[in-house]
Amino acid sequence: LWLKLSTADDLPALQQAVARDPRLEGVRVISQTGYYRQQLGFISDFVTTAAIGISILLGSSAVLAISTTLGMALDKRRREMATLKAIGFNHTAIGSALLLDILIIGSVAAVLAILVVQAALDGRSFGTSSTNQAVYAHFVVDAMVALPVLAYSLALGLLSCAIPLRRILRGPSIRQLTS
Questions:
Q1: Residue 137 forms beta bridges with which residues?
Q2: Which of 77, 51, 149 is nearest to 106 (CA)?
């Protein structure tokens, strides 16, 4: 049985009234979103788990690709870093500057990607139905989506640069060029 309430705040009062009436024993009153959550809970949990797994897999691939590319880019800047070392900069200062450079580039790239996705998908919706179930989804790209994506992107960038930075700063070529 479907009931349309005047406001969502009326639901708790209806639930209490049904619970107090002995003639309605065993009758449950739930919201429409609660009903759909029960009906599609497994599918929702499965899709969420699959999305997280795919994100981790793609993130791992991105870390490998970024690490390799960054290693090659830093190899080309080895002489520049050796010069900085020779004029008195320590590994921490050079590494911090490179890390800041990487974070700025990563932030700009992530923000641009978020803006493209927002322009393409924000406000769009799709629906599908079968014999006894219907699913309707509305895409929203807001701060609740953008901030975790930005954080995940920056975390992947930091993880990607750890090995190349360590290799370039501790490598023999920078010590040879410095001396």
A1: 126
A2: 149
* Token reading at 120: 């393409």
Helix (H) or strand (E) holding 126: strand 125-129
Could you give the residue ranges of the DSSP H alpha helices within 2-142?
11-20, 32-76, 78-86, 91-121
Residue 94 and residue 84 in contact, taking contact as beta carbons nearer than 8 Å: yes
pLDDT band at 92; cut points 50, 70, 90: confident
Q: Determine the length of the chain.
A: 179
- pLDDT-derived band of residue 177, with 50, 70 and 90 as boundaries? low
CA 170 to chain centre: 32
Nearest to 21 by CA among 29, 9, 30: 29
Rounded to two decimals, what is the model's pTM? 0.63
Return mean pLDDT, the chain.
85
User: Residue 136: CB partners within 8 Å, gap ≥ 6?
Assistant: 125, 126, 127
Tokens of 63: 């870390």
